[in-house]
Task: structure prediction
Amino acid sequence: MNASTTRMPSLSRRSLLAGVGAAVPLAALAGCGGSSSSGSDPSTTLYTWISNENDRAQWQAFVDAAKEVDPEFELTLEGPSFEDYWTKVKTRMSSNDAPSLLTTQAARAQELDALLAPLDDLAESAGIDLGQYNEAMIGGMTVDGTVRAIPYDAEPMVLFYNKALFTDADLELPGLSYTMDQFLDNASALTSGDAYGLAISAGLVHLGMSIGFANGGSPVTDGALSLTDPKIVEGLQFSFDLVTEHEVAEAPAAVDSEPAAQQALMNGDVAMYVDGPWMYQAYADALGEDLGVAIIPSESGEARGLIQGSGFGIASNAKDPEAAFASVMAITTPEVIGSVANARGTFPSIASEEQQWAEGKAEDNVAAVTALAENGAPLITTPTWNEVGSQFSQFATDGFRGNRSAEEILGEIQAAIG
Amino acid sequence: MPYLGPGMLGFAIFIVVPLVVSLVISVFDWPLFGAPEFVGLRNYQYMLDGDPAFWVSLRNTLIFAVLYTAVNLAVALGLSYWLMNLGGRWAAFFRVLFFIPVVTPMIGNALIFRLMLNDDGIVNQALAVIGIEGPQWLNVPGWAMFSLIMMSLWQGMGYNIIVLGAGIAGINPSVLEASRIDGAGPVSRFFRVVFPMLTPTIFFCTIMTVIGAFKVFAQPYALTEGGPGNATNTLVLHLYRNGFSFDRLGYASALAWVLFVLVMLITAVQFSQQKRWVTYDS
Result:
């Protein structure tokens, strides 16, 4: 270094700290407005629930089936767990780089009203016949007279059971007729010591609600909450009594009881559990030929399904609705829905694909699901359904411990939310 | 100004602006997605005379704050005094041991406690071994609140133990030595010498612990979901649910403001009363 070299003045510690102090908040501020995803094309990005590998495999099955038709088809999956999905979807869809595709359940379409673009005109322009999809599900996906999502399934809640445990106990396998008395007798016979006849989870739409629905009740009537419908109250009280009075099921955990209940069925620790057919493949993987499916028990013994189902919609703020709709249509063609139904066991929303779904399944299992699907109604709810579910999860523990009746719990929620 | 600027900028962006915006949002019906609607003071009116969960969650928060703060400070003070007398490597070992829960994620802790406190969890199994039928820890209102406080204490006490330990270490050893020569035993020395000299540190811990207790969220969220019923619902959990689950950002902001004012008032009262018991004489 010679004498003429200009030397930069060194930064003092204070100047450095001052500079860093200024830069950090600004960088953080810049980060707030930045992208939270990897910059995927919004029209080929689906925001959906991905709770576990089972969920991911299901969504991937749609992508794989669509790729068979168009190898260039791309769909990026993004999303939180099912429970978090309903909390996060509105904030995610408010961001600048929001995905253009999102998933909804029929039971949540009312709640996501503002997020979901009407699809009728897009379908008409594309020459799509919405009449080919399950009528009940299209009804469930209709908000303010317009269809907001294309259903890919139409799944009634069913009673999964372990055939081997029934056979070992010399019990007749439940089938297309199953009364609550028979169900209770079977549950009692399958209970011994610490081994319970069935598992129950504390969520609102499970055993109790399904039974109430099967008996003709409905938690929502003409767009308003009707939680105190006597049939719904009786159904939930019956599920409480199974634990407190009949002692054929263990009281579910206060929080997040569903995974434990599902695992109990898969491990062979319990003989019965009510769930949706979207879990069919997971249960089949665990129980193999021992997996049985029966109708939901009812007073009359006849099948009446509480149909849940989901579909794909387009964000109301999608920048290119046509491109997004093209992506939706690619994953809701009869072939794709049939393929996913075949691979994953989801009951298809298109009647012509039911055979694809039935392939490889035991005839009695197929008959039970079909009976509930053909004689069922969709769970159409209210915009406040998330609040109803949240409140019930807080109060359910009181019911399953015998501290309060279903009438008290549902009455209080009905009064609070209206 | 060059030195004050960055800090003031951060303060303005992250404290002042959010506060003002929150106040503005609180007078709107503000959905997470869609257009807000001005409603004036209706959110506050609903809170005070319409929302059945507000008063319950406020009562729960107060119960939690009082019990948690009192037990936390009493036990942390006792343990830090014990550690001072223990001294050496064992004291260092126990300080680390007590501090570990502070740095572990609350959600993880809550999940473990949930498993432990289930009806047939390890706690009740252990009690059964000695012939005691354990309660339904998470499913009976009183026991659920007790569990919540116990878990929070387990997680939060280590911080106060470290702070109070530092306070004790700052006491002039010659004063303690003099008390020993004068014949003061450990109990007498604690109440007549250590405690009075430690009051500034205890005051600091009280302020911070009360503020933390009023913000309790993760514990009821993960351990009990606010149940059974609303027995462990707290203000911040109620606020979170209204904002991010029930799509009522305006109402959640109103709740946040009430919480802010409440904490500010309680802190102000604490500061106004400190001259009665805090001594800064060394």
About this structure: The beta strands of chain B are 28-29, 37-38. Residues 17 and 60 of chain B are 30 Å apart (CA to CA). The interface with chain A takes residues 2-3, 5-7, 9-10, 13-14, 31-34, 52-53, 114, 118-120, 136, 138-140, 144, 222-230, 233, 241, 244-247 of chain B (CB under 8 Å).
